[in-house]
Amino acid sequence: QVQLAESGGGLVQPGGSLRLSCVVSGPIFKMHDMGWYRRTPGNQRELVAEISDGGGTTYADFVKGRFTISRDNAKKTVDLHMDSLKPEDTAVYYCNAQLTNMDDTWGDYFGRGTQVTVSS
Predict the structure, then answer these.
(1) pLDDT by residue (tens digit) across 62-84?
(2) Residue 52 neighbours by CB under 8 Å, 6+ apart
(3) I want to staple 24 with a disulfide (CB 3.0 to 4.6 A). Which of 55, 66, 76, 85 is the partner?
(4) What Å distances lie between residue 77 and 48, 73, 93, CA to CA?
Protein backbone atom coordinates (compact mmCIF):
# COMPACT_ATOMS: atom_id res chain seq x y z
CA GLN A 1 0.00 0.00 0.00
CA VAL A 2 1.07 3.59 -0.54
CA GLN A 3 2.68 5.28 2.43
CA LEU A 4 4.05 8.75 3.04
CA ALA A 5 6.61 9.18 5.81
CA GLU A 6 7.65 12.62 7.08
CA SER A 7 10.79 13.47 9.01
CA GLY A 8 12.70 16.53 10.14
CA GLY A 9 10.35 18.18 12.58
CA GLY A 10 11.42 19.41 15.98
CA LEU A 11 11.96 22.41 18.23
CA VAL A 12 13.62 25.51 16.81
CA GLN A 13 14.07 29.07 18.02
CA PRO A 14 12.36 31.99 16.26
CA GLY A 15 14.36 33.00 13.22
CA GLY A 16 15.79 29.51 12.83
CA SER A 17 15.49 26.96 10.03
CA LEU A 18 14.25 23.43 9.58
CA ARG A 19 14.04 21.05 6.65
CA LEU A 20 11.16 18.61 6.40
CA SER A 21 11.42 15.56 4.18
CA CYS A 22 8.81 13.11 2.95
CA VAL A 23 9.39 9.83 1.15
CA VAL A 24 6.65 8.04 -0.76
CA SER A 25 6.63 4.25 -0.94
CA GLY A 26 4.39 1.56 -2.36
CA PRO A 27 3.00 0.52 -5.75
CA ILE A 28 3.15 3.90 -7.50
CA PHE A 29 2.94 4.46 -11.24
CA LYS A 30 3.24 8.24 -11.32
CA MET A 31 3.41 11.12 -8.85
CA HIS A 32 1.41 14.24 -9.71
CA ASP A 33 1.07 17.29 -7.46
CA MET A 34 2.83 17.02 -4.10
CA GLY A 35 2.72 19.36 -1.18
CA TRP A 36 2.85 20.22 2.48
CA TYR A 37 -0.07 21.15 4.72
CA ARG A 38 -0.17 22.11 8.37
CA ARG A 39 -2.63 22.09 11.23
CA THR A 40 -2.36 24.47 14.15
CA PRO A 41 -4.26 23.79 17.40
CA GLY A 42 -7.95 24.46 16.99
CA ASN A 43 -7.73 25.02 13.25
CA GLN A 44 -8.27 23.05 10.09
CA ARG A 45 -5.46 21.72 7.98
CA GLU A 46 -4.24 24.37 5.53
CA LEU A 47 -2.05 24.32 2.47
CA VAL A 48 1.51 25.55 2.99
CA ALA A 49 3.10 24.83 -0.40
CA GLU A 50 2.67 22.57 -3.38
CA ILE A 51 4.72 21.55 -6.39
CA SER A 52 3.49 20.08 -9.65
CA ASP A 53 5.11 17.19 -11.50
CA GLY A 54 6.54 19.83 -13.84
CA GLY A 55 8.14 21.73 -10.97
CA GLY A 56 5.71 24.63 -10.74
CA THR A 57 5.27 25.87 -7.17
CA THR A 58 2.55 27.58 -5.16
CA TYR A 59 2.95 29.02 -1.67
CA ALA A 60 0.54 30.25 0.94
CA ASP A 61 0.92 33.99 1.52
CA PHE A 62 2.04 33.43 5.11
CA VAL A 63 5.18 31.52 3.99
CA LYS A 64 6.14 33.30 0.78
CA GLY A 65 9.79 34.25 0.79
CA ARG A 66 10.56 32.04 3.80
CA PHE A 67 9.74 28.46 2.73
CA THR A 68 10.92 26.53 -0.33
CA ILE A 69 9.40 23.31 -1.61
CA SER A 70 11.30 20.86 -3.81
CA ARG A 71 10.89 17.33 -5.09
CA ASP A 72 13.00 14.49 -6.42
CA ASN A 73 10.94 12.19 -8.61
CA ALA A 74 13.64 9.53 -8.82
CA LYS A 75 13.87 9.30 -5.03
CA LYS A 76 10.10 9.83 -4.59
CA THR A 77 10.64 12.61 -2.11
CA VAL A 78 9.26 16.07 -1.45
CA ASP A 79 11.04 18.47 0.90
CA LEU A 80 10.14 21.72 2.60
CA HIS A 81 12.95 24.05 3.60
CA MET A 82 11.74 26.54 6.20
CA ASP A 83 13.68 29.70 7.03
CA SER A 84 12.94 32.65 9.32
CA LEU A 85 10.58 30.55 11.37
CA LYS A 86 8.03 32.32 13.56
CA PRO A 87 6.14 31.09 16.64
CA GLU A 88 2.95 31.11 14.55
CA ASP A 89 4.53 28.47 12.29
CA THR A 90 4.15 26.00 15.15
CA ALA A 91 1.98 23.20 13.82
CA VAL A 92 1.83 19.59 12.73
CA TYR A 93 3.07 19.46 9.14
CA TYR A 94 1.68 16.87 6.74
CA CYS A 95 3.08 15.63 3.46
CA ASN A 96 0.60 15.22 0.61
CA ALA A 97 0.87 13.39 -2.70
CA GLN A 98 -1.58 12.88 -5.56
CA LEU A 99 -0.67 9.65 -7.29
CA THR A 100 -1.62 7.26 -10.01
CA ASN A 101 -1.22 3.80 -8.53
CA MET A 102 0.05 0.73 -10.36
CA ASP A 103 -3.52 -0.54 -10.67
CA ASP A 104 -4.36 2.69 -12.56
CA THR A 105 -6.41 4.16 -9.72
CA TRP A 106 -5.87 7.74 -8.54
CA GLY A 107 -5.35 8.62 -4.92
CA ASP A 108 -4.79 11.64 -2.68
CA TYR A 109 -2.59 10.64 0.24
CA PHE A 110 -1.36 12.24 3.46
CA GLY A 111 1.37 11.24 5.87
CA ARG A 112 0.87 11.04 9.62
CA GLY A 113 2.50 14.40 10.22
CA THR A 114 5.55 15.78 11.98
CA GLN A 115 5.50 18.36 14.78
CA VAL A 116 7.27 21.68 14.30
CA THR A 117 7.55 23.91 17.36
CA VAL A 118 9.00 27.40 17.13
CA SER A 119 9.77 28.75 20.57
CA SER A 120 12.51 30.40 22.54
Answers:
(1) 999 999 999 999 999 999 999 99
(2) 32, 33
(3) 76
(4) 17, 7, 15
